[in-house]
Structures are given as structure tokens and as C-alpha cells.
Automatic annotation (TrEMBL):
Keywords: Copper. This is SCO family protein. PANTHER family: ELECTRON TRANSPORT PROTIN SCO1/SENC FAMILY MEMBER, LINALOOL DEHYDRATASE_ISOMERASE DOMAIN-CONTAINING PROTEIN. Transmembrane segments: none annotated. It holds the Pfam family SCO1-SenC. Belongs to the SCO1/2 family. Residues 16-197 form the Thioredoxin domain.
Length: 198
């Protein structure tokens, strides 16, 4: 009887909605210790690599991942780029998915530079958007994704993260993944597929 109960419990747990594995993570803790949830927003001041304005409308009803990078990056960005290309190409004919990459070096990453960088990926524009904004707006956007960046003393590199944020169709953050770790990339791909099927 105990074995039967254990089997039933395992079956019940396996049938649970897998969204429980993807909690909503876009929240702040207020002064009383309560969670205040928010959705990702893009206000005025963002342009993509095609020099077109980018706003919250561009992410409406889309699953997307976000990272922060710069084109001259000598450290983590090249392997991150490789992984993002693989993710983009693995999701064939998925019109409801996009990668969003924010430059953290607007002084050097002009729109033409971002366009050239985009072309080097071989990924269509509708699947991968490279965003430009002034440094204050980019810092504020990074805060929405619970990350940050700052220049290193050498004035060449930046302290920034190899994590990407996964966001659902309602603009809620559902996960953070270090895409320099193979197992995390596998988990990210599965979680993207799950959110696209919702």
C-alpha cells in the first residue's frame, strides 16, 4: 500500500504544471517585506540596430531573452555571442521569440556598428534585436533585469554579467541563466520552449 501511495504521489508531482518550475521573478521587496511585482517596460529613448524606435510594443506577446554586452568586448561576449547564435538558430519558425541585446558602450557602439555586428551573427533581424540608448537609460533597463555593469579601470572592458534573463509573453521575468555553462543553456532552451507553448 505504501508503494502504491508513493507511485501515486510521484505521478501527481510529475503532472503538476511545469510553470511552478518557472516562478515570476520580476519583483521588488518593499519596506514592509512584501513583494511588489512589475512587468518589463521599454520607454522612449531606445533604438534598434536598424535605427528604428524600440518600445514595449515590440515585446508584446513575445517570449524573449535579454543580455547586456558591447561589441569591443575582449572577454565573455564572444562566447556569449556563439551561444546566442545557437539558441536563435535552434528555434526555427518561432515568430513569438526574440533575443534582445543591449549595448553597454553607446559611446563606441553606434547604430552602424550594431548593424554590422548584427550582420556578423547571420541571424535574421526579427529574431535578434541590438538596442542602443544613452548610458542612463541602459543602466535603468539593466536594473529592471536585476543586473548592472560598470567600466573597468582600463577603459576598454566592463564588469558585466554572462547571465541572460528569460521573459514571458506578459513581460514577467521567469529565469536567469549563465549561458557560458552548457547545462544552463540546455535548461534555458527547454524553458523557452515551455513558455512558447503556454
Amino acid at each position: 500500500m505504501k508503494l502504491l501511495n508513493l507511485i501515486l504521489l510521484l505521478l501527481l508531482l510529475s503532472c503538476k504544471n511545469s510553470s511552478e518550475k518557472l516562478p515570476i521573478l520580476s519583483y521588488k521587496i518593499d519596506s514592509t517585506g512584501n513583494k511588489t511585482f512589475y512587468s518589463i517596460q521599454y520607454n522612449e529613448g531606445f533604438s534598434n540596430h536598424l535605427n528604428k524606435p524600440f518600445s514595449t510594443k515590440n515585446i508584446d506577446n513575445k517570449v524573449f531573452i535579454v543580455n547586456f554586452f558591447f561589441t569591443r568586448c575582449p572577454s565573455i561576449c564572444p562566447p556569449m555571442k556563439h551561444q546566442l547564435i545557437d539558441i536563435a538558430k535552434s528555434l526555427k519558425n518561432k515568430n513569438h521569440f526574440v533575443i534582445i541585446s543591449h549595448t553597454i558602450d553607446p559611446e563606441n557602439d553606434s547604430i552602424p556598428v550594431l548593424k554590422s555586428y548584427s550582420e556578423s551573427t547571420g541571424v535574421p533581424d526579427y529574431k535578434w534585436q541590438f538596442l542602443y540608448a544613452n548610458i542612463d537609460k541602459t543602466q535603468a533597463q539593466a536594473s529592471q533585469f536585476m543586473t548592472s555593469f560598470k567600466p573597468k579601470n582600463d577603459e576598454i572592458d566592463f564588469y558585466h554579467s554572462s547571465y541572460v534573463s528569460l521573459v514571458d509573453k506578459k513581460q514577467s521575468i521567469r529565469g536567469f541563466y549563465n549561458i557560458l555553462i552548457g547545462e544552463e543553456v540546455k535548461r534555458l532552451k527547454k524553458d523557452i520552449a515551455y513558455l512558447l507553448s503556454e
